[in-house]
Model the fold of this input.
Amino acid sequence: MIETGAQAREKVMSLGDPVRAVGAQRYFKTAPGEYGEGDVFAGVSVPKLRKLARECKALSLADAVRLLHDPVHEVRFLALLLMVQKFQEGNAAQQQRVYARYLKNARFINNWDLVDVSAEHIVGPYLRERDKVPLEKLVRSPLLWERRIAIVSTFHMIRQHTYSDTLRVAERLLADTEDLIHKAVGWMLREVGKRDGQALEAFLRSHAGQMPRTMLRYAIERFPEPRRLRYLKGECVRRPLNTPQQRPDGSAETRVV
Done:
């Protein structure tokens, strides 16, 4: 059993594979100007990190937060696994502490896999029955990772068959310029569609024309090919009622497509 953060970090480094680390640095875009610029990898697989997290139950929340500040990516990944673990096993007071420390340290949750392994398991369940003002704050953040936390955290609500939070956050992020946000929003919309096709179709009829191409492609990935192509061609977009459409006889009409 691992009892200190230093022991946990040492174990992560001992599991590292230099060849895997080089591949990870390319995969997670760590070159200058890329979204993961400067990130450092040890080369440890996710299954090994999950196994290690089970051996670190003696560590405190403070230990996990210190690990989250580490420059090595897999150490931060382990820290987030520990925070999720403490949230899921904790009482209401412990869950509030984990949630607060998580958001306070969001700048260290600085790659898409770090967000995706944690946001739906901490922010989502904490906010499910609470005011969603924190999601609005995250959506407005200049930090890419906080905006991704906002949309991915709603995966918890989606799993509970509640879609309004996802659709509201998705609408707020339509004009986002980051590809990683486009992918995350499209992914969450696709998950809504798996459970409620009508909810997704209603969102798409109103917003498909505004959606970045990647976001739209992700959202409609599971559609039958003919319908998917119609969306990609813009044929399923709701047009304003006052938009003139030409009748075969040359006169104008207004309609919603």
